[in-house]
Amino acid sequence: MGDVFDHIPPRHRDFIARQHLFFVASAPSGPDGRVNLSPKGLDSLRVLDERTVAYLDFIGSGVETIAHLRENGRIVLMFCSFEGPPNIVRLHGRGEVVEPGHARFAELRALFPPAEGVRAVLLVHVERSSDSCGYAVPRYAYEGERTALGAWAAKKGPDGLVQYQRDKNAESIDGLPGLAWVQKR
What is the value of pTM for the model shown? Predict the structure, then answer.
């Protein structure tokens, strides 16, 4: 029923481009760390080529994905159709964190529309792309994007966002290092 590739084939790329929501999962090394799963939205993902995707990572109360990528690089993105024919696409790969100040940050950030609260661009170097039926995924209708993140970030202001990241994004819930710039202070 499902197909597996070592790259992102055109049909997966087209499917990904139509989705308004995707999920990101990562985990630390070893048996004791917590697995993390996060929903992502907004206009925050780009397929750069047949083996690379980039997505905007927004400021949040945790920093799990960034910490896990720094530790072991493992990541999976999942896209599932809630409208139209059923389908699920998973991209397994190795992630790279590109924070402001990194040589590639401005170039990658320019691929996306302006948005408040971006703390990094995450690159995923895809090693495996697969699809499956999605027959059990329910139908939901897309109603639009939420504006809460932008309003929250604007209210905090630049200094407030810096302090928030220092307070909340220095390390993961398992104590792994989070944002690099926070570690350097």
Answer: 0.96
